[in-house]
Write a structure and sequence with these properties.
The protein has a 5-stranded parallel sheet, with helices on both faces. About 9% of the residues have low confidence. It has 8 helices and 5 strands. Helix content is 53%, strand content 12%. The protein is globular, with a radius of gyration of 18 Å. The protein has a single domain, classed as 3-Layer(aba) Sandwich (Rossmann fold), CATH 3.40.50.10490. By secondary structure, it is an alpha/beta fold.
C-alpha cells in the first residue's frame, strides 16, 4: 500500500510533468516580445496586477523585478503611483475575465500604458486589451465541473493528478516568470550580487 507521503510526492512529480507540457506550448515569439517590452521599460514604472493565487504569482515576479532594478509596484498595495503612457502593466489572469483586472487594464490603456497579459484564453476580454499576450494553458473551471472531470478521467484510466481550478495555470506562470527573470539577468547584464544588494535587509 502506497503511503500518503509517497502519494504526495507522486502527485508533485505529476504536476511537474503537466507544467513542463504546458510551458512547451507557450509561444516563443510572444515570450521574446515580452522580454523586449520589459527591457524597453527598465526606466519606467511597472505595475503588476493579479487576484487570488495569480496575485501571489504577480507579487513574486514583482519582487524579482525589484531585484533587477525595475521601478515596480503591485496593485492593491498602499504605495502605488499614477501610471502614464511610458509605463507598463503586467496582468495575470487565467480566465482573462476577472472584473478588477479588466478595470485596471482598461484604465492603463486609457492613459496610453503598455499592457502584457498572461492568460489561458487568447480571446478573453483581457487578451483583447493587451499589447502582448502570453497564452499559458490551464484548467480554469468550477468546482463541480472539476469533480466530474476527475471521475471521468478515472473511469477512462487517465491517472494524471488533478490540479484543481487554476493550479496548472498558476504553477506554470510561476515557473515561466522565474525563467523570464533568469533571461533578463543576462539581457540586462546584471549580476546576482547586484540583485542581492537590492534584497530587503530589514525583515
Amino acid at each position: 500500500m502506497v503511503s500518503i507521503g509517497a502519494e504526495v510526492k507522486n502527485v508533485a512529480f505529476g504536476f511537474l510533468t503537466m507544467v513542463t507540457q504546458t510551458i512547451s506550448k507557450v509561444s516563443e515569439e510572444d515570450l521574446s516580445k515580452a522580454v523586449n517590452i520589459l527591457k524597453e521599460h527598465h526606466g519606467s514604472k511597472i505595475l503588476l496586477i493579479g487576484m487570488g493565487r495569480s496575485g501571489f504569482v504577480a507579487k513574486a515576479f514583482a519582487l524579482r523585478l525589484l531585484h533587477l532594478g525595475f521601478d515596480v509596484y503591485v496593485l492593491g498595495d498602499t504605495l502605488v503611483p499614477s501610471i502614464g503612457q511610458k509605463d507598463l502593466v503586467i496582468a495575470i489572469s487565467g480566465s482573462g475575465t476577472t472584473r478588477l483586472i479588466l478595470v485596471a487594464a482598461e484604465a492603463a490603456k486609457n492613459v496610453g500604458a503598455t499592457v502584457i497579459a498572461f492568460t489561458s484564453f487568447p480571446d478573453s476580454p483581457l487578451a483583447k486589451l493587451a499589447d502582448c499576450v502570453i497564452e499559458v494553458k490551464g484548467r480554469i473551471i468550477g468546482e463541480d465541473e472539476g469533480r466530474r472531470d476527475y471521475f471521468a478521467r478515472q473511469i477512462l484510466g487517465l491517472h494524471e493528478p488533478l490540479a484543481p481550478l487554476g493550479t496548472l495555470f498558476e504553477d506554470s506562470c510561476m515557473v515561466l516568470l522565474d525563467a523570464l527573470i533568469s533571461v533578463m539577468i543576462k539581457e540586462l547584464n546584471i549580476t546576482e550580487e547586484e540583485m542581492g544588494k537590492r534584497h530587503a535587509n530589514i525583515e
